[in-house]
Design brief:
Layout lengths: L1 H9 L3 H66 L2 H8 L5 H21 L3 E8 L4 E3 L2 E3 L9 H8 L5 E4 L6 E3 L8 E9 L6 E10 H9 L8 E5 L5 E3 L11 H4 L4 E8 L2 E9 L6 E7 H4 L1 H47 L14 H39 L2 H20 L2 H18 L5 E3 H19 L3 E7 L7 E3 L4 H12 L6 E10 L2 E8 L6 H12 L17 H14 L4 E7 L3 E9 L1 E4 L2 E7 L5 E7 L1
Parallel strand pairs: 14-16
Antiparallel strand pairs: 1-2, 1-7, 3-5, 4-6, 6-7, 8-9, 8-12, 10-11, 11-12, 13-15, 16-17, 17-19, 18-19, 20-21, 21-22
Helix pairs in contact: 2-6, 2-9, 3-4, 9-10, 11-12, 12-13
Length: about 625
Amino acid sequence: MKKLNWFQMNNLPIRYKLIIHFLLISILPSIGLGVLIDWTASHIIERQTNENTLQLIGKVNKTLESYIGNMQNMTYFISFNSDIMRFMEGDGEREQAEQDDRYGIRKFLQGITTLYPEVAGILITNSRGEYISNEMYARSDKSLTEEAWYREAVDHKGIFTIVGHPVGRNVANHVNYKDTEVVSVVRAILDPDTQEVKGVVLVDLKLRVIAEAAKDVRLGKSGYLMVLDAHGNGIYSPSQPLIGEIPAEWLGESGSGNFSKQIDGKRLQFIYRKSTFTDWTTVGVFSAEDSIMEVREIRFYVISFVFIVCLLGIAASSYLSYSMSRPIGQLMSFMQKAESGDLTIRHWGDRTDEVGMLGRSFNAMLVKIKQLLSLTELQERQKREAELRSLQAHIKPHFLYNTLDTIHWMARKKGADDVAQMVESLSKLFRIGLSRGSDVIPLADEIEHIRSYLQIQQTRYKDKLNFTLNVAPGVQRVSVLKLILQPIVENAIYHGIKERRGPGHILIEADEHDGHLIIRIADDGKGMPVGRLFALRERLNASFAAEDEPGETGQKHGYGMMNIQARLKLTFGEAYGLYIDSETDTGTTVTMIHPIIRERAGHKERTEVNEDGSDLESVDRR
């Protein structure tokens, strides 16, 4: 399926491909950049919101610690007052003195409440249940030593303790503060020698100061701070909280952190930090939607940017694809007209880009095609004329053969045997040389052809020329290229035998060796010097495409051999050809390597070899 879709993509017009390409390189990076910016901004804003909220909570905790610290110092200060110590140890015999002490104690407590307006009231009670207070009183005659706050102070052995909101105590305030409007702290006063509890100091802190410290902090549109005691009970929360109570297990064991919960279908975010001094936990509560308002604003700008980029990208890609595909489409229409046969069509335009270059090349191609068509028509016409002339001249070879046969029998009849033999040799030379137009003939015919040639030359040179033909019986029916021996033998006669003193001899041998037909033409003529031999070898080993002119001075004798070398290598490959050895005043030997081509019923078979001479395979030549 994927492969099919890819091929369908390849079949799209180039304009659509360009549009898709431009959209991919413009819109996709913009969308990716927008998503990355949105994700980064969300995480940065969330991290900054958490950090800022924790900082605000830390400041609120320090304020609360300051108030509670004042309460702690206040209890220590009260415990060192001499009148209060005498009140703790009074026995009832000093009634008038105790009355004076009580009055002094109240004035002392009144000064403290005046100095610290956050204090709602101070109450001091001894172990006998007697108490002194400037703002607070017992609601009944029940002994205050039985109160829960008193027992809690006694249990902590003089350690400052935060009780929290008072619940059901037998103490009231003249201002009628509700239990939820104050926070109580206590501390037991001990005898320094016996560590016996002499009494307890009770101080009520106005909740208003805690509310003022917490309510000034706003988290988003509806977020707020709330304060919990060590047991998870609420110390302060706003009048309309988003959540009534926060279970202690939500806060965990760590001193600070954040989490989110789904409350009544609304996602709430919680950030908290615990005070090690008061053991209170200040919790910031706000809606998760408030925290992403800035993210939404950034997201709006990012989406607007991506939209504008996409709009501009689509417009630019459409324009660019049209400007690039339009000339290509025009050139394609010109090609279609040329394909239909209209070679007069031309691409017009002054563009200098690749399309313009392609158009000019198209015009040049049409001109060249028209020239080639004209040349082909001319060649076909010339070919038909040549065939006609060949048909007209077909009778000439037969007329020549018949004439030579007539001369041969007339010479026999007249008793001129030497003339008859020469005419017979010439007739065989012509017959084998023409060979009905065939390029490949049996080796026996090629040997007969060279025999006739040597007989004619022997008649000319008399006793100066002798020759020997030694052909193995197994290779006589092997097929060879036509006329590959006559040029070599001609060179042997004119450049070897003719230039030596006395009679000369030419030896022609043919045999099979290592799957090849090996033909050796050796003469005992003048030979050639080393420099000339090397030059001839280089010409034979060089590229046979560069042919020598037959009239070139000093090289005329090599033209026929170069022709044979080219025919062998073009027909059979580089493994075949001629190899020359010569020595001055000794003679020259030309060795020809030819493939074995055997005739079978209806076809020919030859053995091909590698360039190193090893057999490849037998190939049928039909």
